[in-house]
Design goal:
seven-stranded mixed sheet, about 35% helix, about 475 residues, binds flavin-adenine dinucleotide, binds NADP nicotinamide-adenine-dinucleotide phosphate
Amino acid sequence: MGSLGTGDRPLRVAVVGSGPSGFYAAGHLLKSKSHPDLTAQVDVYDRLPTPWGLVRGGVAPDHPNIKAVSRVYEKTAAHPEFRFFGNVEYGRDLTHADLHERYHAVIYAVGAQTDRRLDIPGEDLPGSWAATEFVAWYNGHPDYRELEFDLSCERAVVIGNGNVAADVARMLALTREELAATDVADHALDVLADSGIREIVVLGRRGPAQAAFTNPELLELGEMTDADVVVDPRDAELDELSRGWLESEQASATARKNVEILGGYAGREPEGKRRRIVLRFLVSPLALLGESHVEGIRICRNELRDEGTGLRACTTETIEEIPCGIVFRSIGYRGIPLEGLPFDEGAGTIPHDGGRILDSDGAPLRGDYVVGWIKRGPTGIIGTNKRDAQETVDTLLADLDAGLLNEPPNPDREALEELLSERAPEHVTYEGWEAIDSAEKSAGEPHGRPRVKLTTTEELLDAARDRVR
Ligand SMILES: Cc1cc2nc3c(=O)[nH]c(=O)nc-3n(C[C@H](O)[C@H](O)[C@H](O)COP(=O)(O)OP(=O)(O)OC[C@H]3O[C@@H](n4cnc5c(N)ncnc54)[C@H](O)[C@@H]3O)c2cc1C
Ligand SMILES: NC(=O)c1ccc[n+]([C@@H]2O[C@H](COP(=O)([O-])OP(=O)(O)OC[C@H]3O[C@@H](n4cnc5c(N)ncnc54)[C@H](OP(=O)(O)O)[C@@H]3O)[C@@H](O)[C@H]2O)c1
C-alpha cells in the first residue's frame, strides 16, 4: 500500500461547518499548492440543510454582491472528491469518536453560534434582542423564523459600533421597494416594510476614531434613500487622546477615514427623510428600562483613558435616559463549546496552535483542527477566513508529512454512508442543496428577487428530496 494521501490511500478529512472557513479549508485541501500530488477526500457537514454559514444567514440581504462569493464555494463543491452532508449536527448526530473512527483528520469550522451579553439590568426584558437573533430571523434561518419583532414603536436603539450594528440599522431603515428586491425572508419582509420606527439610535461606547465600522459600511448609512444620518457635531469632535492617537503611526487608514466621514455627517442638514439614523459616541448602556417590556434605555457618558493596552471607555456620572420600544444588542457574537473538545470560556474559542487543537495541558489533540470564528473569535470579513484556512491546512499537511494524523480503523466512504443512514437519515447531499437552491431561485425570478428563501427545515427537506428522489 502507498503512503497516506496517495492514490490508493486517500487522506480522509471531515470538515464540521460549511461556512466560509469550512469551505476555504476544503478548497485548500482539494487543491493543495504545497502538496500538488495529494489525494484527499473531504466531507463537509452542516447542522442546517443548507451550506455557506453566515454568507446565507448573516450577510445583509441588500448586499447581494457579497453573497456572490458562494460561487467560489460552488467550484470547491464540484470537485469529485468533495461531499456535503447537511442537516447533520456534530454533538447530536455525530460524535468525536464517530469521526475519529472514519477520518484521518477533522477540521471544526462551526463559527460563533451565540451572542455576547451586556450583563446589565433589563437585558432580558421583552423588546431587548440580540442582533444575532434579528439577523438570523430576517435571513430566514430555520431556528429563528418563529420570532416576533414588534416594530410598531417610534424609536429603536442599536448598541454597538461594528458592521453588524450598521447592518441592523440599515435593515430597519430600508424602504419596502428596496427590501422587496432582496432575498430577505418573506416572514420579515412585511414586518420590516410596515415598521413604525422613525428613529434608529446607534450607541458607541468609545469615540468616532474607535468605531469598528469599515468605511463603505459607514458611508452607506449616509446614502439611505429614506433615512437621514444625524451626528451631533459635539459627538464628532475628538477628545485629546483620540486626536493624538489618530496622528500617530498606530492609527489605521480606516479609522482616519471614519473620522472624516463622521465629521461630514456632523456638518449635514437633515433632508427631512421619513427616518433618521442617529450615531452617538462615548456612551454606555447602564440598564434597559420598563416593567414588562422595553420602554427606554439608561446610558452614561464615557471618557476615554489610556490604560496601556489602548484607549478604554470609562463611565462618568453623566446619565441620560432615551425612551425607545426596542433594543438590539450588537456587541459581538460568541462561540459555544463542542462535545469532546477543549474550550476557552473567556475567549469563546477552541485553543489551538496554528489550527492544531490543544488540550488543557497545551498538548496537541491528534487529528483535530480548527478554523474560522471558532478558532480566532468572531471578527474578520469573509476573506479573512481564506488566509486562516490556509494556516490550518498547512498545519494539517505538516502533520501528514510527520505521520502525526489520526489512524482511523474504518476509513472507507461507504461505512460513513451507513452510519449516516442510521443516525441522520434525513441528511441533505450537495445534489439536495442544488435542488433547494434552484427551487428558491425559481420562486424569486418572477418577482425580480435573487431567491425566495425556504425557511423551515421541513420545506427545505421537501425541496431537497424533489431532485434526489
Ligand atoms: C451579521 C453578519 C454579517 C456579515 N456580513 C459580512 C459581509 O457583508 N462581508 C464580509 O466579508 N463578512 C461579513 N461577515 C463576516 C463573515 O460572515 C464571517 O467572517 C464568516 O462567516 C465566518 O466564517 P465561519 O466559517 O467561521 O463561520 P460561519 O459562517 O458562522 O459558519 C459556521 C457553520 O457551522 C455550522 N455549524 C455550527 N455548529 C455546528 C455543528 N454542531 N454541527 C454542524 N455544523 C455546525 C453552522 O450552521 C454554519 O453553517 C458578517 C458576519 C455577520 C455576523
Ligand atoms: N459588510 C461587512 O463587511 C460586514 C458586515 C457585518 C459584519 N462584518 C464583520 O463581522 C465581524 C463581527 O462584527 P460585529 O459588528 O459583530 O463585531 P465587532 O466589529 O467586533 O463590533 C462590536 C462592537 O460592539 C462594541 N461593544 C463590545 N462590547 C460592548 C459593551 N459591553 N458595551 C457597548 N459596546 C460594546 C465594540 O466596541 P469596542 O470597540 O469598544 O469594543 C464594537 O463597537 C466584524 O469583523 C465585522 O467587520 C462585516
